[in-house]
Amino acid sequence: MTRARLLLLPLLLAACTPTPAPPVPGDDVPTVPRATRPARPSCVLNPAWLSALGGPAGLMGVNLRPAPLGAQATPSLFDQLLDVREAINGSYWGESGVDLQALHEQAETGARTAFGNLRAATLSAQTDAFMNDYVDGVRDGHTYFLDAAGFRAFRDSLSAAPTPTPRLGVRWAAVPGEDGAVLLDAFPEWPAAQAGLTRGDTLLSIGGQPLTRQPGDSDAAHAARLSTLLGQASAAGAPVTVTYRRAQAGAETTASTTVTPRVLSSAPLPYARTVAPGTVLLRLPTFATSGVAQQVHTLIGGAQRADATHLILDLRGNGGGLLSEAIGVAGALVGDRAGETIETLDGQDVTYAYRNGQVLAGVNCAPTSPVLGVGTPARWAGRLTILVNEGSASASEIVAQLAAQTGAILTGERSYGVGNTVTVIGAISGDRGLSVTIGRANDLRGQPLTPDVTPAPVTPDDLRALAHGHDLPLEAALK
Fold this sequence. Notes:
By secondary structure, the chain is α+β, with helices and mostly antiparallel strands. It folds into 2 domains: 73-161 and 266-478, 2-enoyl-CoA Hydratase, Chain A, domain 1; 170-259, PDZ domain (Pdz3 Domain, Roll), CATH 2.30.42. It has 13 helices and 18 strands. The strands form 3 sheets. Strands 1, 11, 12, 13, 14, 17 and 18 form a 7-stranded antiparallel sheet that branches. Strands 2, 3, 4, 5, 6 and 7 form a 6-stranded antiparallel sheet that branches. The longest helix is centred in the middle third of the chain and has 17 residues, at 219-235.
C-alpha cells in the first residue's frame, strides 16, 4: 500500500519539552525483549505467527496476532503503545537500521508529555496522528499504522465487502496545476464506465458543481476538495450529471453524461481490453482479495484464444495485497519460477511456489501444502510488458521482478520500494491496524529480491499528459 511517509513531529516536539510529565504508578509501558533469529531453524516447528493466521494460506491476511490480551474494555493509548512494542519486537524482520528499543522509549516519553496519564488517554484523531508518526519512525515502508477508517477499508478490501456508500466506480487523481479530476480507472460494468467514461477523461463538474481549483490551492488541497465534492455527489445514489473533457486524436472535446452511483465491491478485479491489433492490456488494480489470480488466468487464456501476441500487464497504482494471489498471478507469466522464500525473525521460513495451477507452501521444507488453486491455468508465452509507477508496491514489485527475470520488459517509472519484504497487517487495541514487516524475500534460487523495480529508460506516468490524451507509459509499451 503506497503511503506518504511522515516525520516524527509529535516526538520531536516532545523532545523539546524540558520536563516531561512523570509516569503515574502502573503507567509505565512494560519492556518487551527484542527477539533474535535462531541459527538453525527446524523443519518441524510450527510458527506461532503463521498459525494465528490460519496457516500459510492466510499470509498477508487479517490478523498479525489474536486480539490483544489484557487490554482495557475501553482501550487507551497505553494499550496501543504496548501492542506496537509486542508486535514489532516479536515479529519485525526488515532492513531498518533504527534502534527500535530507543524508538519505543522515545514514543512513550513523547506520548506522556502530549497526553498525560497513558492509561487515561482515550483514543482520538490526535492519538492516531501520534501513533502514525511513532510507527513511521521504524523507517520501513512496509511498517505503518492504520486508523480505524483505514483498517476497516483494508478489511473490506480483503473480503471485497460492499462499499459503505454508493460510488461512481472510478479511481481518479487531481490534475497537477489544473482544474478537474483525471480518471485513472473506470472499471467495466460499474457506473462511470456504463455511462461512457474511460481512463484519461477529466471530470470538470459533477451535479452542477465545478471541479475548479481555488485560488492559492496546492495540489493536495485541490485533491481534498475534489474528494469531498465527488463523495457528496455520489453518496445519495441518485443520478448525477458529469461534465468531462476527453482528448482524442489530437483534439479535446467536452461532453456530459449521467452516472447513477451505487454500492460496489471494495476490491475491483482485473480486466482486459484490446489496445492494438494483437495486443491486450490486462489491468490489475489490486492483489488484496481472493480471486485475483483466477481472473488473471482466465483473461490470459482469453487473450491466447484471440491470438494475442503481446500482453501488457498494468500494475500502476497497485499497492499489493495477498502473497498467495501474487504468486498465482506470477505463475501465469513465468510458470514454475514463480515463488519466493520468506525469512522470518523466528526462523520459521516459509516457501511459496507455483506448480501446475496450484500455489504450494512449506515451512523450512519443500512446499507441499496447497494454499491456492486455479481452475484451467494459463501460461503466457508471447511478448510481455509490465507497466509500473511509484504507486506499484509490494506484491506488484514481486510479480514484476519475477517476470523481468524471464525476459519481460518493464515500462514506466521506479516503483515504491518494498518488493524485498513481506508484511502482515493485524488488529491492535481500539480497532486500529498495524502493518509490520515480518519477512525478507528471496526468489526460489535463494537470491534476495530487490526493493524496487526501475524501468530503463524511465517513462514518467505524467498525470497532466494523461488528462490531455497521452498515456506516456502505455504509448511507450506499444512502441
